[in-house]
Amino acid sequence: MSFVSHLEGAIDGTQLEPRTVQTLHKDRPIWVKYDLDAVKKAVSRSDLVGRTDSMWRFRELLPVEHNENIVSLGEGMTPLVDCPKLARRFGVKRLVIKDESQMPTGSFKARGLAMAVSMAKELGIATVAIPTAGNAGGALAAYAARAAMCCYVFMPGDTPAANRAEAALFGAKVFRVNGLITDCAAIIAQGKERFKWFDMSTLKEPYRIEGKKTMGFELAEQMHWSLPDAIFYPTGGGTGLIGMWKAFAELAALDWLDDDKRPMMFSCQSSTCAPIVRAFEKGERFADPWENAQTCASGLRVPKAAGDFMILDAVQESGGAAIAAEENRLVDLAREASRLSGVSVCPESGACFGALETAVENGQVSANETVVIFNTGAAQKYVEAIDVDVPTLDCADVDWNLIERV
Ligand SMILES: *Cc1c(COP(=O)(O)O)cnc(C)c1O
Q1: Which residue owns the Cα nearest ligand 1 atom 5?
Q2: CA 120 – CA 23 distance, rounded (Å)
Q3: Quick one: 67 exposed, middle or buried, by C-beta within 10 A (0-12, 13-18, 19+)?
Q4: 282 C-beta neighbours (distance < 10 Å), count
Q5: Are 249 and 73 in contact (CB under 8 A)?
Q6: What share of the chain is helix, strand, coil (3-state, %, to 5)?
Q7: Residue 233 main-chain phi, psi, to 5 deg
Q8: Ligand 1 mean position, distance from CA 99 (Å)
Q9: Residue 115 Rama label (left phi>0; alpha psi -120 to 50; beta)
Q10: If we measure between CA atoms, which residue out of 167, 333, 322, 140 comes closest to residue 238?
């Protein structure tokens, strides 16, 4: 029941065996390819009506072969929230937030890891390990718990407390490492043989992209098969952006899109960790590692992305851009966006609002266009970054003047 035709090395197009355990090819990620002609015959977009309200509604375009291997917590079909006040504030016709904060474990990481864990189950993998800057560890821990797999999570010491707590909550073996995510990845590479870990790092197995591409399918379906003018996406490892661009190509091949228009893809980073932006500005296809990566938006703290060329290709092909927002504005932008929308906007997506401001100033996005911003995670997981001082009251002697003043 899978339409996967083969796997393909993204760097050189080499065909690889499907239905076997695959990691990287020539140290670079692997695409999953489908027999789209067969999919087209098997399913039409009207067949989606009445299907499960999760990303698994796009079943024919997903790699799992046997339904019993699907490991699910109901992920997907997150709402599109129209935000007229934000549209006015940023000077565009329409601004819509796709709110991924409403996913299991509070971030869009659930999509990729639901898929990766389902495929790991199908391929007989029992133990998984992941280096994480934050949300990926929690999501993997949750799906591993659901699949009854053993899970190891390695995170930099200063990863937000909520991420440590949730990974431990689901029974994962969690470690804090006095280094960066790259140091965590090195520990997994060294311990892999000894502990029989399967490495679930971003893009080091082929299936997280397949989970994340469902954001593109949902967006198309929710917008009635006509895509927006621009998408702003906070970029760390880039799976979300890469996945959506792949999704749009697949939908076009199926003739499911009403018009030919594809969105401009904007890859958004923080000024203090912007390897993709730097490469884009230099017109390069590969990004040099970023030294001393630091940002309060933990999901963006990825100094070196294995899929750098896949991100930059998508951005280029789409006519979009890679734009950095000032690190010291991320939290304020997230606060402003939350206040003007009611959506719990994470600091990562704060970078999208900063990038949107720049894109409008530069004329890359115009006043009559529709923009979709991905809110990739829930702000409440970032208490350290977003905490604000609030006044304290004495219940025996309430200071009413203070209340009047705030
Ligand atoms: C991981 C993460 C990102 C970066 O996502 P990629 O698809 O790896 O680029 C952005 N925002 C949040 C909240 C994340 O957890």
Answers
A1: 236
A2: 11
A3: exposed
A4: 10
A5: no
A6: 45, 15, 40
A7: -130, 125
A8: 13
A9: alpha
A10: 322
Q: Which two tokens stand for residue 56?
A: 């698994």
| pLDDT, tens digit (0-9, with 9 covering 90-100), for 239-277 | 999 999 999 999 999 999 999 899 999 999 999 999 999
- Find the largest Cα–Cα distance for the chain: 74
Q: Which two tokens stand for residue 126?
A: 């029992």
CA distance 111 to 153: 18
- For CA atoms 230, 88, 348, 73, give the dihedral sign: negative
What one-character DSSP code corresponds to residue 286? S
Q: How far is the CA of 266 from the centre of ligand 1 (A)?
A: 14
Ligand 1 and 236: CB distance under 6 A: yes
Yes or no: say if 347 and 294 are a contact pair by the CB < 8 Å rule: no
**For ligand 1, mutation pick of 109, 201, 210, 298 (most atoms within 8 Å of CB):** 109
* Residue with token string 């690190």: 327
Q: What domains can be seen in the chain, in order of their start residue? A: 80-106+208-383 (3.40.50.1100)
Among left, alpha and beta (phi > 0; psi -120 to 50; other), residue 125 is beta
**Verdict on whether the full-model pTM lies above 0.85:** yes
What letter represents residue 108's amino acid? F
Which atom from ligand 1 is nearest to the alpha carbon of 241? 7
Q: What is the pLDDT of residues 172-199, one digit of tens each?
A: 999 999 998 889 999 999 999 999 999 9
106 burial level (CB within 10 Å; 0-12, 13-18, 19+): buried
Distance 290 CA to ligand 1 centre (A): 17
Please state, in angstroms and as integers, the Cα–Cα distance from residue 27 to each residue in 24, 305, 306, 326, 389, following that order.
5, 11, 8, 32, 47
